[in-house]
Amino acid sequence: MTTLTTSATAAGLGEFIDASPSPFHVCATVAAQLESAGYTRLAEDDQWAALAGRHYVIRGGSIIAWDAGDGGNSFRIVGGHTDSPNLRVKQKPGRTSAGIGMVALEPYGGAWLNSWLDRDLGISGRLAYRAGDRVDHVLVHVTEPVIRVPQLAIHLSEDRKGVTLDPQRHLDGIWSLDSDAPDVLEWTAGYAGIDPATVLGWELMTHDVAPSQLIGADNELLSAPRLDNQGTCYAGLRALLDGAPAIPTRVLALFDHEEVGSGSERGAASDFLATIIERIVLARGGSRADYLQAMAGSVCVSGDMAHATHPNYPERHEPAHRIAVNGGPVLKVNQNLRYASDALGEAIFAVACEAAGVPMQRYTHRADLPCGSTIGPITAARTGLTTIDVGAPQLAMHSARELMGAGDVPMYSAALQAFLSEP
Ligand code: ZN
Predict the structure, then answer these.
(1) Is 217 contained in some domain?
(2) Which domain holds residue 401?
(3) Which terminus of the chain has fewer Cβ atoms in its 10 Å neighbourhood, N or C?
(4) Residue 2: inside a domain, yes or no?
(5) Could you tell me if 266 and 342 lie in one domain?
(6) How far is the CA of 219 from the centre of ligand 1 (A)?
C-alpha cells in the first residue's frame, strides 16, 4: 500500500515498546537509535556553538531531536507523548495486609483499572541517589514479574457482578510472603546496583512483562502495552531517520506527562519545544526576529493514537466516521478544540498522506460523549504553531494491553515522513 520507503514495522514497534516501560526508557530507546544514526546529544546547560547537523536534547522523560538538513528558516515538527497510564509506586510503598507484604500503588493518568488486575508486573523508572557530594540518577528496568494485583474471586463479589475498583483500597500489589524480605525500594535499588542507603528519590512504575506480540489468524494485529502513545514515538522516530534532509529543519518532539495534563517542566505546556527551536535559530547566528519568523512559517503534527471503531460497540462511535483497523492514519477534528486541527492543517496532512501513498481517515467523536484531548491544543496555544492532531487507529486505549493493526504502523510512519519532508 505504502509507496514511500519506510523501515517501520509492527515487529519493530513491539521491540521498541518492550524496551521502553517508562517515559525515561522511551527517551533512552529513542536516543540509542538516534546515536546510531549519527545524532549527538546536547545539554541545555551548555553553550551551543554554531550548529548544523543532527542533535537531540533530553529533559527528564521528554526528548527533542532534529535534523537541520539544508538549513532554511522553517521547521516541520512531529510531536507525541512518552508516558502511558499505569500503576505507580507511592512514596512509602511498604505495607502488610492479611500477613502479606504489599507494594502501595496508585493510578497514573486515566488507567483502565480492571485491565491491570491479574497481570504479572515488572518495575521501571528512575532512582536518584547521593553520589559523593552530588546527586545522580539511574534508570531501572526490572523485566521479571515481581508484583501482582489479584482480582477478587467472583464468589466473593456481591451478586457475582464484580466490584467497582477503589483506587485507594484495591490496587496495592502483592510483593512477598516473607516478612523479612526487603521492601520494594530497597530491592529495586539493589537490582539497579545502587546502595539502597543512598537512594533519596524515585519515580517508579509497573508494567505488564508479557512481550508484545503479533496476533490474529493472519498476524494482522499487534497486541502490546503502551501503544498510546509509543505507536507515535516509534513511527515518528522512523520517519525522522528514514527521511532525507529537507529544506525545513525536521524535528521530533516527544513529551512526558500528557496523561496528567502536560503541566510540568518537561510537558507539552512547558517552554521545552519553543526554547529548543529558539536556541537552534540563535546557534545558527539568527536573531529573536528570525526565530519568530521561523515559528510563523512552521507546522506541527501532534501524533497520538486514535479510536478505531470497536466491533462490539459500534454504537459508541460517530456513525458516518467508521475508523478501520489497518485503514491508514487518522486525522482528528473536534469543533470544541479538544484537537487542534483546522482546515489549513487538515489540508497539509492530507497532502502528506497522498505523498506517502497511504489512505487518510477522518475522525470525529460522538457529540454526546466527552472527547479526550492530547498535546495538540496545548502545543498550539503555547507556541502559536499551526498544529494538526493525527494518529493511528487502535482498540482498548488506556488498557494495560492495547491492540492495533500491524499494517497501520508503516502507513502511519510513512505519512509522518512525508509531512516532515514538505517545504
Ligand atoms: Zn495518548
Answers:
(1) no
(2) 10-84+225-421
(3) C
(4) no
(5) yes
(6) 24
The single residue listed with the C-alpha cell 501503544 is 227
Q: Quick check: 63 pLDDT over 80? A: yes
Same domain, 143 and 164: yes
- Of 164, 183, 208, the one marking the end of a domain is 208
Q: What is the Å distance from ligand 1's center to 304 Cα?
A: 5
CA nearest to 394, candidates 78, 92, 17 = 17
HSE-CB at 165 with a 13 A cutoff on CA atoms is: 17
Asked whether the whole model's pTM tops 0.70, one would answer: yes
Q: What is the pLDDT of residues 386-414, one digit of tens each?
A: 999 999 999 999 999 999 999 999 999 99
- Cα(145) to centroid(ligand 1), Å: 26
CATH assignment at residue 283: 3.40.630.10
Distance 28 CA to ligand 1 centre (A): 19
pLDDT tens, residue by residue, 129-145: 999 999 999 999 999 99
Residues in the chain: 423
Instruction: Tell me, in angstroms, the distance from the centre of ligand 1 to residue 153's CA.
Output: 32
Domain boundary pick from 208, 237, 254: 208
Cell reading at 402: 492495547
pLDDT in tens, 38-47: 999 999 999 9
How far apart are the CA of 171 and the centre of ligand 1, in A? 23
Q: Are 270 and 383 in contact (CB under 8 A)?
A: no
